[in-house]
Amino acid sequence: MSDDAVEAKVEYIQKMLSNIDTVLQRHGGIQNALADEAEARAAIMLSLMQVGETIDKIEDEVLEQYDLKVDAKGAYSVRNFIAHDYEGVDLDLIAEIIEDNLPELAKKLEKLKASFE
After folding, report:
1. Where are the alpha helices (DSSP H) in the chain?
2. Burial class of 56 by CB neighbour count within 10 A (0 to 12, 13 to 18, 19+)
3. Beta carbons of 61 and 71 less than 8 angstroms apart
4. pTM of the entire predicted model
5. Per-residue confidence of the chain (117 residues) as pLDDT tens digits?
6. CB-based contacts of 20: which residues, under 8 Å, 6+ apart?
7. Is 114 exposed, middle or buried (0-12, 13-18, 19+ CB in 10 A)?
């Protein structure tokens, strides 16, 4: 995979993370956003699925080099969980992922992106 392809994937993931942040801000936080079934929750779930799907397409060597291997596996697991059991998704777990895992993922992706400059 070329550096350009990896960079495009990283930028797309960052866009999805930014979309989640925007939804959270518009709704005044995680709990309010997840309570909004009609729009916010669906937007968050779709963005999380896209993060998992896209990060899974980045080569293992790149993920390992930037300490993203565990994050990628977790993101893809979340993607599968949402895609295959949407009605059974534990919203408290989603809130925990957003609060605890996404900021660290964003930092690691920023380091990876900086390597292309």
Report:
1. 3-27, 30-35, 40-55, 60-65, 69-84, 91-96, 102-114
2. middle
3. no
4. 0.93
5. 688 899 999 999 999 999 999 999 999 999 999 999 999 999 999 999 999 999 999 999 999 999 999 999 999 999 999 999 867 899 999 999 999 999 999 999 999 999 987
6. 43, 44, 47, 48, 98, 102
7. exposed
